[in-house]
Design a protein that fits this description.
Elements lengths: L1 H17 L6 E3 L4 E5 L4 E3 L2 E3 L7 E6 L5 E5 L2 E2 L7 E4 L2 E4 L8 E8 L7 E11 L6 E3 L3 E3 L4 E6 L8 E6 L2 E2 L10 E4 L4 E4 L8 E8 L6 E2 L3 E6 L3 H27 L5 H9 L20
Parallel strand pairs: 2-11, 13-21
Antiparallel strand pairs: 1-4, 3-9, 5-6, 5-10, 6-7, 8-9, 10-11, 12-14, 14-18, 15-16, 15-19, 17-18, 19-20, 19-21
């Protein structure tokens, strides 16, 4: 038994020496990284080489043009001073929206049979909701169409919106013939025909799952009935004014006030006053 084992050992060692080693390989444990703004983002990169003990590590960021993040053992602007590296894994500190994008980790091993390996990591920087802007009319008349609008342009991912009336949530309409419509993605609350019962204090809440939700200050909306009597009186008065003006103009036209003869009568009958004769003294000069 011992003799058989001693014969197999050299064969195993020979096979290990003859078997090819794995060339340079590069991988990451997270191809997509999402992190809240102002926090740290870890861009992982693991590698293994065939022979080369000191491969070259580079990080690049893709965009309109590829730019260096880490090159020749140093971080480049704007990452210098706010990024660290351990092995080939990079940590970006206090990320901003400018840091969002696609990054590439490249490992160069000139001594390996495959000299280059790479992996990509996409960084998405999340932004919690800001206080949304709310457009709420202060007053409207019954039966009219009224829209309330709520919007936050800066949240990432885009916020969804919910409305409150007198601090109570407004439920999304479930019936097709509901008196209002509410879109949680656009933030629009629309009343098809407002009634007096729709009067109240309205506010809007924006949320996107990042940070704390934010609510606008809100505003009171008053729904008033149309004063039918005042409208009728106004219409009657306007009709009377139009009627009087029309009748007056017709009478003046019948009396010839607007005729050419009437306009030019004073010039036709005009007789200039007679001129007084002036004393005329004739002076003769006699020559003696």
């Amino acid at each position: 038994m011992m003799e058989g084992t001693s014969l197999l050992l050299p064969i195993v060692l020979l096979l290990l020496q003859c078997s090819p080693s794995a060339p340079v390989t590069v991988s990451t444990n997270r191809h997509k990284v999402e992190v809240e703004e102002s926090k740290d983002a870890v861009l992982s990169c693991m590698f293994r080489t065939e022979v080369d003990p000191s491969p070259r590590i580079e990080w690049k960021k893709k965009g309109k043009e590829v730019s260096f993040v880490y090159f020749e053992g140093h971080f480049k602007a704007p990452y210098e001073g706010r990024a660290t590296i351990e092995g080939a894994t990079v940590t970006l500190h206090r990320v901003t929206q400018e840091d969002a994008g696609e990054y590439r980790c490249e490992i160069s091993a000139p001594q390996d049979s495959v000299t280059l390996g790479e992996t990509n990591v996409t960084l998405k920087v999340l932004v919690p909701p800001n206080t949304p802007s709310c457009e709420i009319p202060s007053a409207a008349v019954t039966g009219s169409v009224v829209q309330l609008r709520c919007r936050d342009e800066q949240s990432i991912p885009p916020a969804t919106y919910s409305w409150f009336k007198n601090s109570q949530p407004i439920s999304p309409p479930r019936l097709t013939n509901a008196t209002y419509l509410m879109d949680s993605h656009t933030g629009v609350l629309e009343f098809k025909a407002v009634a007096k019962d729709d009067s109240g204090h309205y506010s809007c809440l924006a949320t996107n799952g990042v940070g704390k939700p934010k609510m606008c200050e809100g505003k009171h909306m008053t729904i008033e009935d149309v004063n039918v009597m005042a409208v009728v009186v106004t219409v009657v008065v306007l009709c009377l004014v139009v009627l009087v003006c029309s009748c007056g103009g017709l009478l003046l036209r019948r009396n010839g006030f607007f005729s050419p003869e009437h306009r030019g009568r004073s010039n036709v009958n005009y007789v200039p006053p007679p001129q007084e004769p002036q004393d005329f003294k004739h002076t003769q000069s006699f020559m003696l």
